[in-house]
Amino acid sequence: MSRILVRDGMILTLDAAGTYHERGTVVIEGDRITGVGAGTVPPEPGDEVIDAAGKIVLPGLVDLHYHTALGKGYNDHLPLWEYLDECWYPIIRALDPEAAYWAAMASYTESLKAGVTTVNDMYRQLPALARAAADIGIRAVLSNDTALAEHDLDTLADNASAFEDLHGTAGGRVEVRIGIEWLPLASPEFLRDARALADELGTGIHVHLNESITEVEDSLERFGRRPTVLAHETGLLGPDVVAAHCVWLDDEEIRLLAETGTSVSHNPSSNAKLGNGVARVPELLAAGVNVGLGHDAAECNNSADLFEVMKFASLMHRAVRGDASLMPAERVLRMATNAGARALGHETGSLEPGRKADVIVVDTGNAMFTPLLPESPAHLHSHLVFAANGSAVDTSVIDGRIVLRDRHLTFADEAEVLREANAAFRRIKEKMVVVRR
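User: That's the sequence. What structure does it adopt?
Assistant: Structure tokens below.
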């Protein structure tokens, strides 16, 4: 079997021991990493060599809370609830499969070019999203945007159908979970049914929880419980659950997340843009909750660059608490890799023999990485989290296939993607109907 050799790079394995090779090689055979070590591995006939000299090699980033987006920059000056009614719901209710496909292709293009190798994507028209993921080469965990039937989104039956048709496709790169929009569009019975369906199918759950203070107030008024308490009482929480946002948590809710092994996606830049506040991430981490990072949606963030999210994830907490020791660079980098992979049950997130071959190469030959101390992994962590952006990503390997080379997609025509996504938004915009509460 021919191999891919990622040679002569600065190898940040991000394994448990923090192993670092100032000049090393990652060996890939099939869809697995089979070797990681110092020095150069000589190629054999048929091997493909990626020259990583002067570059950082690290695990691909995991975007743990993701919505394919079509209308970036459209009507994005509103707080969450109004934004949903004026922009988000009208767009996704007007979606057709063709628009969803090009929306996903555009979203995945932006993510791939910023070093993301896995997306945890809650949206609609899942067959179109799965086709986009298969075509472009990304690893995608998909879930429907489900709610009670009266809200004219997807149903749990839609999600069950998507699981049966799509889970495990694209050579296993596409998975399907159960998605739940949020509690204002749900009920206790709906949450119980979602848990029962996930258990029946043997899959996980992706849910928004405690995103805004209005959500908490709505839950208290309708159910007499805070959102995470209600999720716990209905059996929804567990180690197979990714709970997105979790901004407005009290101590009891943090305890419940920790006790149930529920993972949290911290989405700091989206939370800030929508005016939703700052999540209690230091307390979540101290309680032992697994916390990953997500960009949310480019429609309520305007960027799918997870490097930008990493910077926000550190600086925001330091600023509001006046403590520069919070959220150090290595921890944040591990949130974007190790923690996201753990939340999804994936064998990715670190560079170790036997792990899935999701690897990115970051070019340091620019001002973002100047000055550079190759002998210091801490210096590399700092540059990656505080100085870099996605434009420094040179190459991406997913499942042992090179999907981005010299910043060019290898399985899609970027110009076509952008052209078709622009046309799709214009067409969907004409079909949108705003229904105010």
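The first strand starts at residue 3 and ends at 12.
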